[in-house]
Amino acid sequence: MAAETNTTLTAAQIAAALAKTRAKNGRAFSRKFYLTYNIIVVGLFLLACAAYWVNIHLVQKPRSNEKRPLIGQGRAKPGRYSAITNLYRKARGVLLYQPPGRYLESYGTMLVIGLYLGLNAFYCFYDSTFNRRVLANRFGLMSVVNMPILFLLGSKTGLLVQWTGWSHEGYIILHRHAGRVVCLTALGHVVAFCSSRSLASYLEKTRFILGFVSLLAFLIILVTSISPIRNRMYETFLYAHVYFLVVGMVVLYFHYARCRPYIITSGVIFIWDRVVRFKDSHHVVGRTENVSGETVKLSLDVNSTFRDIHWKTGQYIYVTISELARTQAHPFTIASHPSASTLDLIIRARRGFSRSLYDSEKTEHKVTFHGPYGSPATFENCQKVILLAGGAGVSYTYPEAIELAKGDKFFDGETPEIDFLWVVPKRDFADWVDLDSAKYGVDFKLWVTAESGRPDIKQYVKDSVLETLKQNNYDPDTKVAVAVCGPAPLVLASRNACADLLWDNVNVMFYSESFGW
How many CB atoms lie within 10 A of CB 371? Predict the structure, then answer.
């Protein structure tokens, strides 16, 4: 009789088999589960587009060119509407408020960031049983699934800005956090895999080596993106951002087949962005003039090219001067009125490109720029527009004030009252700007910090808004807009002043114009 085969398994073997089965089932579930993340993200994006469309075409757009009737047919009755409006404004005030702190954003922005990070954490850890192989798989999937989002948010052509109406500043903030999610989940992917097996066993296979190379490229981008490094070595950050991103994406394509649809999608977005930039590019002659405050005025001759150039107040362009920085494109707000013969830019000399332009002995340059981009605020139906600028931030508020005074932005010819304040360190800083109030019909107010100290912007905004309310007999429908462009403390003070006013049920609109990386 043949000896019976011993099929008894040890406890360790059973545990290993169960762990392997759980890991296999977990990975299979992850590959289906993460697809719902795409649906959620696309749904939120479409919701943001719909909200912007409703705001532009139904809320702000005038119904006709007629004046308002003497008997207010559109005025809502007090009661339920007033309570809802009050609650809505309070909610806006809370979301608009920004606590003091260098790395803190407004509560609304931090809420969006928190939801985004929380959603990614949920998809990384839900039903993972904290199995290292399952976690490694989840981290890798969430890294690549966020890459198209990262590329869309980093697009310089402003497609998402035009579709959602969000500011360039807001998209850059979301772009940074998306980049951190991509890099950190990629790091988690490698660490989790290496903790389940020896590192040497992974280095035996080419696709794993490619994964390590891709991770290294992403980590270099992450390190050079840290704020102090980015600010001190901007050119290093920019080159690392572009070249290591291309290397990381190409290597990642060959690392794992499931990455390829997302890598291809990201590549399409990247190429599309470059094609649009090429289509929107203009080659013109630019003339520089160094003015006070270590500032250079770059005037682009729009007649030096065969293509027509049109722009709106508040839009921005990306500028490249090959002889100073061949591969760099820097964003600047257009500082001239749409009907001007030159497209002017006001550039504060800091480091790198701006310093090279300021120190250049040449006053005429061959300039390539692409744009304009952006969906600036229109301030329709506002009784007053408060324009605040600090230093070179006047590049936005000055042409905006002139255009508002002309009534170019309003269908019914009603021009709002304009409260213009420009904060400068010294009086000669403003010598190069034409502040003739009689000529433009704008009361240009200049605040010189060397003579009067720093202004209380928060109180200034509140006093100006309350003055308008008083003039309109405290009508709750009185609408005031506050637009600011300048250093962070100026933006913070004006933002929080508007937040306080919204909490007090005052109809205030806030708009800030700034650029950064």
Answer: 24
**Same structural domain for residues 485 and 366?**
no
> Of 277, 304, 322, which one is at a domain's C-terminal end?
277
Phi and psi dihedrals of 103, rounded to 5? -105, 15
pLDDT interval class at 127 (50, 70, 90): confident
Bridge partners of 333, per DSSP, are: 316
Three-class SS state of 371:
strand
pLDDT at 76 over 50: no
Give the chain's domain count: 3
Count of CB atoms situated within 10 Å of the CB of 14 = 10
Answer whether the bond into residue 228 is a cis peptide, omega within 30°. no
Is the domain of 243 the same as that of 343?
Answer: no
Q: Is the pLDDT of residue 374 over 50?
A: yes
Q: Are residues 47 and 166 in the same domain?
A: yes
228/176 same-domain check: yes
Q: Give the largest Cα separation in the chain, rounded.
A: 117
Taking CA atoms, 432 is separated from 289, 421, 447, in Å, by 10, 16, 16
Query: Residue 16 corresponds to which tokens in the numbers above?
Result: 């290993």
Helix 132-145 and helix 35-54, axial crossing angle in degrees, nearest 10: 30
Average pLDDT, the chain: 81
**In terms of C-beta density within 10 A (0-12 exposed, 13-18 middle, 19 or more buried), how is residue 292 classed?**
middle
pTM (2 decimals)? 0.81
Q: Are 460 and 421 in contact (CB under 8 A)?
A: yes
Rounded to an integer, what distance in angstroms lies between the CA atom of residue 273 and that of residue 175? 15
CA distance 164 to 133: 39
Each residue's pLDDT tens digit, 418-462? 999 999 998 888 888 888 888 888 889 999 999 999 999 999 999
